[in-house]
Amino acid sequence: MLLSLTASRVAASEHHGQVFFNGVPVPGATVTVMQGEKQLSTITDAQGVYEFAEIDDGEWKTAIEMRGFARLDNTVTVGANSPQGTWNLKLLPLETLLAEADSSKPEAAAQAVTKPIPSPSPSHTDRTAAAKGAAAKSEEPKAASPAEALEPQDENAEKAADGFLINGSVNNAATSQYSLAPAFGNQRTGAKGLYNGGIGTIIGNSVFDAKPYSLTGLETPKDAYNRVTVMASLGGPLIIPHLLYHGPNFFVAYQGTRNSDAATESGLVPDAAERAGELASGTIPVNPQAAALLSLYPQPNVAGNSGYNFQTEVLNETHTDALQSRLNKTIGRRDQLYGGFGFRSTRAGSENLFGFLDTTDTLGIDTNVNWSHSFRFPVRALVGYRFTSLRTTVRPAFEDRSNVSGDAGIGGNDQDQADWGPPGLVFSSGIAALADAQSAFNRNRTDAASLSLSTPHRRHTFASGGDFRSQEFNEQTEQNPRGVFTFNGAATGSDIGDFLSGIPDTSTLAWGNARKYFRQSVYDAFVSDDWRLRPELTINAGLRWDYGAPMTELFCNLANLDIAPGFTAAEPVTASSPTGPLTGTKYPGSLLRPDRLGFEPRIGIAWRPLPASTLVVRAGYGIYDDTSVYLSAAENMAQQAPPSTIVSDANSSACALTLANGFPGNCPGSIADTFASDPNLRVGYAQDWQLSIQSDLPKAMVIVATYSGIKGTRGMQEVLPNSYPIGATNPCPSCPVGFVYRTSSGNSTREAGELQLRRRLRNGFTATLDYTYAKAIDDEAQVGGQGHVAVSSTTSTSASSSTTAVPAIAQNWLDPRAERGLSTFDQRHLLKAQIQYTTGMGIGGGTLLSGWWGRLLKEWTVMSQINAGSGLPETPVLIVATPGTAVVGAIRPDLTGTQIGSSVSAGHFLNAAAYRAPASGQWGTARRDSITGPGQFSLDGALSRSFRLREPWNLDLRVDATNLLNHPVYTSWNTTLNWNTGVSSPALSSTTFGLPTAANSMRSLQVTGRLRF
Predict the structure, then answer these.
(1) N or C: which end of the chain has fewer CB within 10 A?
(2) Residue 163 has what DSSP assignment?
(3) Please, what are the domains in the chain?
């Protein structure tokens, strides 16, 4: 479970600040933050503001450098209400400035730059990427804690830092992209120069783009869209004439986006003969409920052997408005008060293959206030409060408009106006699933308070602190109010025949408790010591404690199952009456017992074995808890009986299902609830370790070799108790079946080796080549196993495919370890290359060009990024229900020995002959994630330049191109197979098995313009 959640285990927050000199913002200063072995760099903008979007919570060392000023070292504590840093630089003495002026000559600069500087930490598609080593910029190495460096750093910011560190005297030349803004220093003109800001726009239009790739092989029109983003910002001191002369510094920024686009979607829909009931096996009378639902399917409009017969353009619109503001004020010499406010509003409308238009509106608010105080003895205290709120409203196409189910004569599902619409339809042959969004009105809120203390003592820097968060998740939505029907041909020999006859194979439903009010308290505390044992050896060690209380519901509307030993019996137990009727066990109000043992030791070491060498060795180890496991369990327990209506039935002679009466809920052996969680569910944790070696090479090259590993324990697993293979005899007819049981018994592991070669920015050119070889395996349900195809009682389907991705349920409930296989994010090989060149830099790069030729060619920056990787694993599944349940997609086929990639039919990439139906009474032998998906490749590029207009105005232009070569790349295969259990000789079939399900976007261009002052 925990491989790809490592990043979420270490809380990440935004950190920003502003750099001044005598009250004047300083642009172009290099800001470096260091925590253990992690080191990130950026530069201040025109108003002296710097920002790190997401860095791990905890204490970070900061270093601010600017030519002509003394280096400023300090520490900051990043947390949920991370304070803004305000820093004041001091000029160097005259003799130091003169010495620096001498060293800024090209020949001196080449000799001066001998220290290692930050290396990039490229992000990986693998969600479990461990931290990447970054070279220490100071003379002594910094302590490593690699497992915490989980967020990719800003490549552009780091390259900018390289520019300051390497280019020496050319930094402020007209040919350098790192020159100081004209508003700085002696260039400032009048009082208005105290304020900095800018306006800009980003424009994208389909006129610049290539036509989309057609999965059907037919002519596909170009998707029409228009995207416009406008930006504006302003910052400086708040001065009110005759009233306020030394007010706080402020910064405010607005961004608005208007996006309207059209995309092409393809699918398989019933043809004219099928709509009339004329099938290969004969003519079938069309059931009236089926006829009503069939009218929602569009008519076929394309022909061919592509596996699809319908293609249409779907329209999508997104409007976004966002505002960010910050305010900070220094009070005296020891106190600082600062805070911020932001909001984001998004209004979106999207269509699906059937033309259903659903709208989604979100409104988020984020505000914080912080106070820092420096005591007379060397202790710095930070106290903060943060409030966040997110409201989401989803309005489906049929809400308050048309009661599709009721008008069609389908009974037993929710008839509330908010949940009007069609039931979900799932077909095993690949016919597009019928579905629509679920109505929702959700309001989430978090109140957080934090306190941290830090103090230096000789070679130590001690830090401690803690946070408390009160979280509310208020949801007004049903889980599956209209129900889902699955058809696999068990009744008539074909899934479309079953549908036309009105006989589903399974039916699922969950509704009756729309309003849910979840509450959770989260605590954490930490202590750490950054110990500079020797100039060439630094150790960073600490201990963190995380505790997230199991989630409760405000009105005790939670229900779990009290289960007898051996799963021989099960009865509901509720939060309002938390005593188990079978076992007599007393449950807490959350129905899950708390896990307070979240102690997480961490240590990092950085060592320079040869003091005069650039060789740096880093190692780190840490444990990270995942305290976010309770929300999904609470949402499932809140949609249980009582007070909800839960149905999970499979068609049989004892339980005849029809479209008109598809949710009886009283079939023999059916159980009131379809979900249960182990009351002793434990919080999962990951052990993260890393070893890296970095060294400088000639020609401004840096090489870094890294080995990293993650071991996840107590991951989530889901099984179907008392289930059995198709064709087997029920071993316990009196035992309860039909519910999913969640435990914390999963395990996972990922190991990776990475080799990175980088050329630092020199003469305008920098490049990075990074290769990663990795392997990830697990037997989990929610992380490594997610994305597997299944349809459960609590899941509605997507309208664009016949199935939907849900947590993987173990095929054999008695042997969940047999699910151990490749993780869905396992990418064995990944190669990344990044190249950037700026014209007019370096003696050989046209520095001395003048006149109109120089003005035309200088200062253009060309960037390119190439990603090439192997395919991700996929799982072959059968669209058939596990006996005794209505869960579809947990059963896998048998292997035949035929190579899956051989003898494929036209347009297909997988051979269905590689699989056969499992033997009667046996589970399928095909392993989870045993199919390798299509390889991945992308090449993006960008071209940018800053034009210096009349002081203090600057104009930035940038053109970004995605998929520059216009090369089509498939993203996944269709791996679902139809097993018709209703015929004497069951065989696997599917017209869409082995077809690509989607392709990447073709070439698109985006133009950005920004005017700064």
Answers:
(1) C
(2) H
(3) 6-551+590-1012 (2.40.170.20)
DSSP reduced 3-state for 892: coil
**Residue 91 region, left (φ>0) first, then alpha (ψ -120 to 50), else beta?**
beta
Closest residue by Cα to residue 987 from 978, 997, 976: 978
pLDDT value at position 274? 93
Nearest to 679 by CA among 573, 832, 780: 573
Q: How far apart are CA 153 and CA 132, in angstroms?
A: 10
DSSP state of 718: E
Q: Which residues pair with 63 in a beta bridge?
A: 32, 73
Measured distance CA(420)–CA(309) in Å, rounded: 29
Tokens of 117: 């500087």
Longest dimension (CA), the chain: 99
Task: Tell me if 505 sits within 8 A of 651, measured CB to CB.
Answer: yes
378: amino acid identity, one letter: P
Burial of 107 (C-beta count, 10 Å sphere; 0-12/13-18/19+) = exposed
Q: Which residues contact 458 (CB under 8 A, 6 or more apart)?
A: none
Q: Is 252 exposed, middle or buried (0-12, 13-18, 19+ CB in 10 A)?
A: middle
Tokens 């089926």, located at residue: 290
Query: Cα(first)–Cα(last) distance of the chain, in Å?
Result: 49
pLDDT score recorded for residue 108: 32
| Phi, psi (deg, nearest 5) at residue 88 | -120, 120
Q: Does the reported pTM lie above 0.85? A: no
Structure tokens at 494: 């074909």
Cα–Cα dist 777/3, whole Å = 9
In 3D, which of 888, 974, 897, 890 has the Cα closest to residue 931?
Answer: 974
Identify each DSSP E strand in 564-631 by its residue range.
570-574, 599-607, 616-626
739: phi then psi, degrees, rounded to nearest 5: -125, 150
Distance CA 165, CA 118 (A): 10
Query: What are the phi and psi torsion angles at 996 (to 5°)?
Result: -70, 140
Helix, strand, or coil (residue 662)? coil
Q: In what order do the strands lie in the sheet with 30-35?
A: 38-43, 30-35, 58-65, 72-78
Residues 6+ apart with CB under 8 A from 960: 940, 941, 942, 1005, 1006, 1008
- pLDDT, averaged per 10 consecutive residues of the chain (1013 residues), comes to 38 70 74 74 74 72 80 73 69 51 35 29 32 30 32 34 31 37 39 77 78 68 76 90 84 92 83 92 93 95 77 87 94 92 95 93 96 91 97 96 95 94 92 93 97 94 96 96 92 92 94 95 96 93 97 96 95 94 95 96 95 92 93 93 88 91 81 90 96 95 97 95 93 91 95 96 92 96 54 36 56 94 94 94 70 82 96 92 87 92 86 90 94 94 90 89 89 85 64 84 86 87
Alpha carbons 644 and 632: distance in angstroms, whole number = 17
Q: Give Cβ neighbours of residue 915 (< 8 Å, ≥ 6 apart).
A: 876, 893, 894, 895, 896, 926, 977, 988
At 314, list the tokens: 């779907």
| Residue 911 near residue 900 (C-beta atoms within 8 A) | yes
Measure the CA–CA gap between 422 and 71, rounded to whole angstroms: 66
Secondary structure (DSSP) of 73-121: EEEEEE-TTPPPEEEE--BPPHHHHHHHHHHTSHHHHHHH--S--PPP-
The residue type at 508 = T
CA dist 675 and 639 (Å) reads: 9
CA–CA separation, 176 and 161 (whole Å): 13
**What is the 8-class DSSP label of residue 791?**
B
What is the C-alpha to C-alpha distance for residues 66 and 72, in angstroms, rounded to an integer? 9
Rounded Cα distance between 770 and 155, Å, is 14
Q: How far apart are CA 11 and CA 544, in angstroms?
A: 12
